[in-house]
Every structure is written in structure tokens, then in C-alpha cells.
Amino acid sequence: MDTRVTSKKLGLKERYAAMTRGLGWETTYQPMDKVFPYDKYEGIKIHDWDKWQDPFRLTMEAYWKYQGEKEKKLYAVIEAFAQNNGQLGVTDARYINALKIFIQGVTPLEYYAHRGFAHVGRQFTGEGARVAAQMQSVDELRHYQTETHAISHYNKHFNGMHHSNHWFDRVWYLSVPKSFFEDACTGGPFEFLTAVSFSFEYVLTNLLFVPFMSGAANNGDMSTVTFGFSAQSDESRHMTLGIECIKFLLEQDPDNVPIVQRWIDKWFWRGYRLLSIVAMMQDYMLPKRVMSWKEAWEMYAEESGGALFKDLARYGIREPAGWKQACEGKAHISHQTWNAFYNYNAAAPIHTWVPSDEELNWLSEKYPESFDQYYRPRLEHFREQQQAGNRFYSKTLPMLCNTCQIPMIFTEEGDASQICYRESDYKAYKYHFCSDHCKSIFDHEPEKYVQSWLPVHQVYQGNCFKPGTDPTAEGFDPLMAVLDFYEMNVGRDNFDFEGSEDQKNFAAWKGDTK
Amino acid sequence: MSDVFIAFQANEESRPVIDAIVADNPHAVLSHPTGLVKVNAPNALTIRRETIEGLIGRSFDLQQIHVNLVTISGYIDEDDDQLTLSWKH
Questions:
Q1: Which of A35, A36, A94, B87 has the fewest CB atoms in 10 Å of its CB?
Q2: Which has the closest alpha carbon to A106: A227, A209, A215?
Q3: Total structural domains within chain B
């Protein structure tokens, strides 16, 4: 008679190890360096991949189970939102422009992150890192899809959202997020992790998510709030990947420290510049305001970041080179960025406006050191002009920073009356930058950045017209030709909120007789 | 000394998890940003499966917290019975 032998169930750590690490091997048909050609060239030294600690030990089975639960919950809410005309619950149709910024400029980055993590998920010799990257790649594709679904219902009722993929590859301000991610994806795998997992998904993530999600919650946008909470549970995994990878790199070899420090400096700065559009959204585009950009920066960058870099000091890592300047900029960048979009609103598929007196007063209160001195007079002047029938739109093109690709709107540290200009000469040409930090990024890898596709240069070179466009024809209007290339609905997607279709429609649906 | 924190969606599923954290971590402080429950604690906090099971009267897989987890700060150590957040330095 055989006694039934029951084997002891493996604990979480053992299960995870068996189903992930246990599946890797040293290749023999081909040398490891040929199978994994990219994980040494950056100069990062890894002596022992077994030291990689997987903070969340999710097997694929657990992953699919919990992601499936999240999806069912999320799509039930999205469906209910659509069935109940949830778009009528937003505070004010101006709020929808925050969603336009999101679908145009943030959602495509999820797709790029998906591609980037799929790539690095193949390239590390360590299985733990590959598994974490592969899960994140699926998460990011999920985010691309769920954001698109969450916002799709608004697209049925408002302008400026229907062609976001086409715009991402062409429209001037969208080259800012696009070039950010392409810079990351074209770096090596360790730089990619430092750029995305650490600098963006750990250090700066709350500054992207909290403004949009709290803004949605305060302005009656249930669809986006629900997406936000659903995605945040994935983001907590991403954050732990970010902190684990940085710890791992720094502990493996002291020679990694200066390489990683340089990446932290670069990517903190590029991330900070990218967030200018979020700062603008938070201070100007939320009819029911949450907190100012400055307050969000103080909470999520200065406090949280402070704790983090204190912890990393033991490895010889210091705070990023641009930290102090970014902290000084908290009182300025939102206003400077809004000013640019207000000016260039003919060429941007969103609406802009001059804030109401109540809103101007809120800005004065939140920015006592800068708003009344530098930015209120400009906005009041714009309002006067608009009321006199002179709402103007700039038809010329601005100089862009060659690195971050933002127009040169940022000012010298400590002097907001002076635009900051820096330049470098490289081979036959002169290159222009918004700051010392963008310049130093260029100077370290000029062969990379001279290949940038800068929207303004491309327009002037004639590369932003549809085939068959004739610039010599009578009455040729270059701006209109570019907007045609962008495939914007002129008069519907762009121009001031006042008099827009969005404004008229929303008022009619809500029964406003104004 | 830096705070660790963990935040969940404020709903019925996360309620016993929060209650367990508060029971096992006397220095934990709760706050309630819109739609969330956030727990801050100096240096470290631990979530114990056994405490949660005692509150809900059934077995509980600790990884179920993933469904309602929003954000986290600190290094994680996780096994079948507990999840600990800490700052080492």
C-alpha cells in the first residue's frame, strides 16, 4: 500500500524563483555576448545578476489574474460613464482641453514605453530584470489602450482628440514628448531604465499623475479618475522596478556611479522640461483647481525627492545637477508655457483663454513672488485686446531648444525678465538651447542630437507640407498649409475657447441660455 | 528619518487592509486625499496576511492588494505572509 505523499507548497519567493529565474540558462549554441549584444556597451559593470531583487514577486499567472480583475472593474465604469452621458458631469467645457493635452501628449508615450520595455525585456542577461521589463511592457500597452478608451467617449462630443496619433508625429509641441521618449529608446538598456523606470516612473511620476487625476476628480471626470486609479496600481510596480534597478546598478560596481549620475542629471532635466505642459494644465486648465503646480512640486519633488536622494547619498549619488534650477522654476514655468500656447493657439488643436478674474486672483495668491509682477499684466493685456476684437495669433515660428525641443520661453535662474539663451558650435553649425542643462546634454552626445527632427526647422525646410503643395502659388499661406499637413480641423480644433464649437455645444447640452 | 507610505483606493476591499496596517503599526498615520487612503509611517511599516484574515474571516492572498494599490514609497520585502516597506538609511 502506497502512502500518499503530499509535497509542501512552495513559498512565494520560491515559486517566483522557479517560474522566472529558474527559466534562464547560459547559452551554449551561441555565446552569451552574441545572444545579449547590448548589455555591456554602456560601460555598466554587472558582476552578479543574482543580486537583483524582485520586489513584487508576480508570476505570470498572478499577473494575468490581477490585471484581469482590474480590467473588468475599469471597463464596467467606462461603460456606465458612456451609457449615462458622463461627459455632461464635467464642471466646464474648458476642462476638456486638459484631456486633449493628455490624449495628444501623454497617451502616445505609453505606447513608446511599451515598445521600449519590450526591447530591454529582451536585452538584459538577468532574468529578473527581463521579467520585470516584460510585465511593464504589457502594462504600458494596457495604459495606452485604457487611456484611449477612457477618453474615447469625450471624443464623440468634443473637438481636438480625434487625430492624436497623426498629430504626435507632426505637431510642433508634440515633438517634445516624442523626442523625450525616442531619446530614451535609442539609448542602451541601462540608460533606458535609469531614464524611464527611475527618473520618470519613480522620481517624477507623481507630478504627471496627480495633477491629471486630481484635476479629473475635482472637475467631474469619472472616466479619467477611474482610469487613473486602475493604472496607479501598475505604476506602483513600475516605481519599485525603478528604485530596484538604481540600487542594483549602484551596488554592483563603484564604476557605475558616475555613469548613473550623468544619466540621472540628464533625465531629471529632460523630465522636468517635459512636465512644463503639465504645469500649465494644472494652473490654467482646471476650472475647479486642486493645488498649484508650485505646491505639487513642493510636495512631490522637493519633499519626496529629498527623502530619496538622502537615501542614495550612501552610494555617492547627489541630487540631479538641475535640481535647484528646477525648484526655482516652480514659480514660473506654468505661466510661461500657457503664454506660449495662448500665442500659438492657431497651430495647436486645443483651446486657450484668458483666465477669469477669480482665476487670476487664485494665481496671484498661489504665486506671490511672480504672478502679479511678470504674468498678470500680460494676461490682462491679452484680455483687453480680445475684447477690442484683436485676439491675435502668432503666425511666425519660434526658436526651439535643440535638446528639449520646447520654444525658447524659459528665463534665467533668478531673473524672470531675461529669456535664457545658450549655444554650442558643432562641426559646421550653431545649436541653440534653453538652459545650461539642455546644452550639456547636447555637448555630451552631439552626434545623437544633431539628428533631431525639430518641427520649426522642418517647416522652414518645406518638409511639413502635403505632397503637391506649391509655395510659389498666388495667395499661398504657409501656416494654413502646415495646418493642412497636420490635418487639423481649422476653426474647430484650434483658436480661443470663446466662440468655439465645444463652448456652444456644452452650453446647449446643459441648457445654458447665455 | 524618512516616512514610508502606501496608498490604496478608498473602497470596501481595501478597508480591512488599512485596518490591519493600523493595528500592526502603531506609528502609522492615515490621510484621505480624494478617493484614496494613504498610510504614512516613519522608517517602516508591515502588512500581515494573518491580521487581515482575522478581520475578514476568510483566507486572503496578500498579492490581492495589487488590485487596489495606488502608490508606494520605500523598499519592499514581500512573501506569502507579509509585505514590509522600509527605508534602510
A1: A35
A2: A209
A3: 1
- B63 close contact with A: CB closer than 8 A: yes
pLDDT for B1 beyond 70: no
Nearest Cα to A488, choosing from A37, A24, A104? Answer: A104
Query: How far is residue A104's CA from residue A370's CA, in Å, rounded to a whole number?
Result: 30
CATH of the domain at B81: 3.90.56.10
Q: Reply yes or no on whether the pLDDT at A323 is more than 90.
A: yes
Q: Is A218 on the interface with B (CB under 8 A)?
A: yes
State in words which class domain A55-509 has. mainly alpha
The ipTM value here is 0.87
Cell of residue A395, nine digits:
503666425
A66 touches chain B (CB under 8 A): yes
Q: Do B73 and A314 touch (CB under 8 A)?
A: no
Option in A229, A304, A313 nearest B73 (CB): A304
3-state helix, strand, coil in chain B (%, to 5): 25, 40, 35
Distance CA(A275)–CA(A208), nearest Å, equals: 7
Which residue from B35, B69, B87 is facing A233, i.e. has the nearest CB? Answer: B69
Q: Give A197-255 pLDDT, tens digit per residue.
A: 999 998 898 898 888 888 998 999 999 999 998 898 898 889 889 988 999 999 999 99
Q: Which is it for the CA torsion A442, A319, A211, A109, positive or negative? A: positive
- What are φ and ψ of residue A301, in 5° steps? -100, -60
The strand pairing partners of B78, in sequence order, are: B83
CA B44 to chain centroid, in Å, comes to 11
Residue of B nearest to A14 (CA): B79
User: Which of chain A's residues have a Cβ under 8 Å away from the Cβ of B77?
Assistant: 55
Q: Cα(A401)–Cα(A304) distance, rounded to whole angstroms?
A: 29
Asked if B7 and B89 count as a contact pair (C-beta separation under 8 A), the reply is no
* Residue A135 confidence (pLDDT): 93
Single-letter code of the amino acid located at A454: L
Which of B63, B69, B75 lies at the smallest CB-CB distance from A236?
B69
Residue among A115, A106, A151 nearest A133 (CA): A115
CA-based nearest residue to A119, from A71, A67, A181: A181
Cell representation of residue A20 = 522566472
Among positive and negative, which fits the CA dihedral A209, A212, A218, A220?
A: negative
Contact A271, A204 (CB under 8 A): yes
Chain position carrying cell 538651447: A433
Kindly report each contact of residues A309-317 with a partner whose C-beta sits within 8 Å and lies 24 or more positions away, as own/partner.
A310/B2, A310/B89, A311/B2, A311/B87, A311/B88, A311/B89, A312/A246, A312/A250, A313/B89, A314/B89, A315/A250, A315/A251, A315/A257, A316/A250, A316/A254, A316/A257, A316/A261, A317/A250, A317/A257, A317/A260, A317/A261, A317/A264
* Residue that the C-alpha cell 509655395 belongs to: A471
Q: Is A217's Cβ below 8 Å from some Cβ in B?
A: yes
Under 8 Å CB pairs connecting chains A and B tally to: 69
pTM over 0.80: yes
Q: Does B12 touch chain A (CB under 8 A)?
A: no
Cβ contact A66–B88 (<8 Å): no
Length of chain A: 514
Which structural domain, as residue segments, surrounds residue B47?
3-86
Verify whether the Cβ–Cβ distance B34 to A12 is below 8 Å. no
